[in-house]
Amino acid sequence: MTAQLPAPAHVRRTATGPTTGLADGYAQANLIAVTRDWAYDVLLFTQRNPKPCPVLDVTDAGSPRTVLAPDADLRRDLPRYRVWRHGELAAEPTDATGYWRDDLVAFLIGCSFTFESALTRAGVPLRHVEQGRNVPMYVTDRECRPAGRLRGPVVVSMRYVPADLVERAREITARMPAVHGAPVHVGDPAALGVADLDHPDFGDATTPHDGDVPVFWACGVTPQAAVMASAPPFAITHAPGHMFVTDVRDDEYRV
User: What is the rounded (10 degree) CA torsion for 70, 76, 81, 87?
Assistant: First the structure.
């Protein structure tokens, strides 16, 4: 009889789409890997913009290993990747082994999927999960603080939340700053420069229920927006919503 893989390892080996709602109770992470000569710029960018870019781990140059899941391989254990050349999307492979370089430094950045199980336990519905969709994400008109050669706008994820549960959602997520923490905005998307919630820049549009209001959290796709704006020669990221599932329990990031 074949031994069953633990939940995170099973997701890493089998997931082919967005990882929202998978590996309940485990932290998930965004990925951005850049060449060593750009690594300080990324590190400084994350330090200056901790809300959208909370760092969970940084690898040694060339290493596809992380303490967040010691048996995992960052080159192949995400469902889908994005390969960037001079700020342009060059490929979206399901295995990045052939693109990996010995001088790449990988940053694992906290993901809001991590707090979704806590929201569910508290009775806060997740409309995108109910509807079988990726979470919608939007590029805002809020600029990150530049760092070295990196600049770009803040990206947010949006979840429709019943109006009477917004404060509960705020309180729950505020206790998890390592995975974006409390919302950055509630209500009118125009305040963020977002024109149409039905046309997200990344992910899928979701349908609200009566009484729902849009709630926006800072998003770890922000470094990808910085890659597009700043055009480093080479980078590898996750495809939005296709996260790295770690072996770390989500409770580890609750304060």
Answer: 80
